[in-house]
């Protein structure tokens, strides 16, 4: 039943009663880190930040929000790149931060599953799996800060999608609290379960707009015996696509990462963070980081990686390659790739696009987009990196050396029009893994079919009829 909304102080007092004094942040300085996004593009305001410890507390808070018509913004590690976890400026919303929902409830090694609460850090879950001689393969550069709840709510991808799939494919069950405070226990460790609509899928990728994910049952895999990382220098993007073909054929499921970096990205991490690439020939314009995971041993993995790189060089596809022979060398190669977002942020940012295309269309897309951007302004410089193995490019447009980053943001609409037109013509998606949030909400509405939008709105209406879950995001 609805009751008149009391003033903010009274609302906070009611929330303190539900959560205890240490379960609510109210002071501006305490809330500030949760009111801006990672890229500092959005800053909002909030009634308070709730820090529930249990699913029951989440349920009580959501029932209270429904009764008081208070909007809820779920937040995990706040590493999202589309402003999905940032409240609006009204100060009416409650940020519901999951960081105290941080228990691993169970590891069922015999079933290769792990059940963990939403606020567990991704890195901690990888470590927990490793402690049971298992692999939890979801991997991304933000894994030390992002949470599994956020990973599922955004259907995160990362660097191992090629072999293991994205968050959706790694999830067997979900527990969620609905917008009216109902707890839905969909935690199952089953790989087969054809008993009706697969409801967990609604919450995966829903960006906090349908309910709060409180726990998940996740798939585990055998640990590979060895991982060998190589960095291959290439002259052209077409060569990178040919190398992908070759690597897939040679490695099959042993190919666990195929990460692309354009030369300007490598120049930037060297310039901004002092990370040096191997001494590649001057002609190299691209590099690919390739990871071979092996279920025999280190020597076998190294032999296979060497044979692959040698064949690529002999065929003229690759200019040069280095193969890491120690964990330290592997980490250094991965660091080149994973430091690109940080180097970009330090340099002043750029206009980001997280796009996905069929491998067969990537070349034509890149040629068209680059030509059109050069026509728009000679001051623009394209920085491309991403998960080429699964068709996902981070196609970021900044400025050439010596031109302030702001010059790219001044042309943001025109840049977006060029990039997204080309993406739509070549088989689309305007968001491969980062989601829609508030950054791409309009674009999502423009590019989705009318039928698709209608179905999404019906689902939203059914699960959140009051529209309190993360308003202004996704749909
Ligand atoms: C350096 C860096 C590298 C990155 N690399 C990748 C990458 O390779 N691949 C990739 O996919 N992403 C990447 N990201 C983006 C980001 O890390 C992911 O989107 C991640 O999944 C977000 O998790 P989080 O816990 O930080 O969620 P948040 O940022 O807190 O929230 C993200 C969204 O999920 C919702 N949400 C959070 N928790 C819940 C919950 N429990 N229930 C319901 N809704 C919830 C929020 O409302 C918001 O809409 C990267 C980010 C950074 C900063």
Using brief descriptors, characterize the structure shown:
18 strands, 5-stranded antiparallel β-sheet, 7-stranded antiparallel β-sheet, single chain, 475 residues, binds flavin-adenine dinucleotide, globular, alpha+beta
Present as ligands are: flavin-adenine dinucleotide
Strand content: 15-25%
| Average of per-residue pLDDT values | 94
Number of helices: 17
Multimeric organization: single chain
Q: End-to-end distance, in Å?
A: 26 Å
Taking the sheet with the most strands, its summary is:
7 strands, antiparallel
Q: Strand order of the main beta sheet, please?
A: 15-12-14-13-17-18-16
- Binned, the helix content reads 25-40%
Cα-atom radius of gyration: 23 Å
Shape, per Cα inertia axes = globular
The structure class reads: alpha+beta
Spans of 5+ residues with little confidence (pLDDT < 50)? Answer: none
How many strand units?
18
What does the model show?
With 475 residues, the chain is an alpha+beta fold. 36% of the residues lie in helices and 20% in strands. The protein is built from 17 helices and 18 strands. The protein has helices at residues 8-19, 28-31, 55-68, 122-131, 148-153, 161-164, 200-203, 237-251, 263-273, 298-314, 327-338, 340-346, 362-376, 406-410, 412-425, 441-447, 450-463, and strands at 24-25, 48-50, 72-75, 94-97, 104-108, 113-117, 134-135, 171-178, 183-186, 211-219, 221-222, 226-234, 255-262, 286-294, 320-323, 354-356, 380-387, 392-399. The protein has a seven-stranded antiparallel β-sheet with strand order 15-12-14-13-17-18-16, with helices on both faces. It has a five-stranded antiparallel β-sheet with strand order 5-6-10-8-9, with helices on both faces. Strands 1-2-4-3 form a four-stranded mixed β-sheet. A hairpin with a 4-residue loop joins strand 5 (104-108) and strand 6 (113-117). Helix 9 packs across helix 12 (340-346) and helix 13 (362-376) packs antiparallel against helix 15. The longest helix is centred in the middle third of the chain and has 17 residues, at 298-314. It is globular, with a radius of gyration of 23 Å. It binds flavin-adenine dinucleotide.
């Amino acid at each position: 039943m609805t009751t008149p909304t009391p003033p903010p102080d009274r609302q906070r007092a009611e929330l303190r009663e539900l959560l205890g004094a240490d379960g609510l942040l109210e002071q501006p300085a305490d809330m500030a880190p949760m009111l801006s996004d990672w890229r500092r593009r959005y800053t909002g305001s909030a009634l308070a930040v709730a820090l529930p410890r249990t699913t029951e507390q989440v349920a009580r808070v959501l029932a209270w929000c429904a009764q008081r018509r208070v909007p809820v913004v779920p937040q995990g590690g706040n590493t999202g790149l589309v402003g999905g976890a940032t409240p609006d400026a009204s100060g009416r919303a409650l940020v519901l931060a999951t960081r105290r929902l941080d228990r691993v409830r169970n590891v069922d090694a015999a079933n290769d599953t792990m059940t963990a609460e939403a606020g567990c850090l991704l890195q901690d879950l990888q470590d927990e799996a490793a402690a049971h001689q298992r692999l939890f393969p979801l991997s991304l550069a933000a894994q030390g800060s992002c949470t599994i709840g956020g990973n599922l709510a955004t259907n995160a991808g990362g660097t191992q999608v090629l072999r293991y799939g994205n968050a959706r494919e790694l999830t067997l069950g979900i527990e969620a609290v609905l917008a009216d405070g109902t707890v839905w226990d969909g935690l199952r460790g089953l790989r087969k379960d054809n008993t009706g609509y697969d409801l967990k899928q609604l919450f995966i990728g829903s960006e906090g707009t349908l309910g709060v994910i409180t726990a998940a049952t996740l798939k585990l895999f055998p640990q590979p015996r060895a991982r060998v990382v190589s960095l291959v220098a290439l002259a052209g993007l077409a060569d990178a696509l040919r190398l992908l073909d070759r690597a897939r054929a040679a490695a099959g499921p042993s190919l666990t990462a195929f990460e692309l970096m354009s030369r300007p990205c490598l120049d930037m991490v060297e310039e901004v963070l002092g990370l040096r690439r191997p001494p590649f020939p001057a002609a190299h314009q691209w590099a690919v980081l390739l990871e071979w995971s092996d279920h025999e041993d280190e020597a076998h993995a190294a032999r296979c990686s060497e044979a692959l790189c040698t064949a690529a060089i002999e065929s003229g596809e690759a200019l040069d390659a280095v193969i890491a022979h120690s964990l330290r060398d592997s980490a250094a190669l991965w660091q080149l790739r994973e430091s690109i977002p940080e180097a970009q942020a330090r340099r002043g940012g750029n206009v980001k696009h997280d796009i996905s295309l069929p491998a067969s269309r990537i070349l034509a897309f890149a040629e068209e987009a680059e030509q059109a951007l050069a026509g728009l302004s000679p001051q623009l410089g394209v920085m491309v990196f991403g998960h080429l193995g699964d068709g996902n490019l981070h196609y970021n447009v900044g400025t050439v050396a010596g031109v302030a980053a702001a010059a790219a943001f001044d042309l943001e609409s025109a840049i977006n029009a060029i990039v997204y037109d080309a993406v739509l013509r070549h088989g689309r998606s305007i968001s491969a893994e980062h989601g829609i949030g508030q950054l791409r909400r309009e674009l999502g509405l423009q590019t989705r079919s009318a039928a698709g939008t209608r179905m999404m709105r019906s689902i939203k209406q059914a699960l959140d009829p009051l529209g309190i879950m993360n308003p202004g995001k996704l749909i």
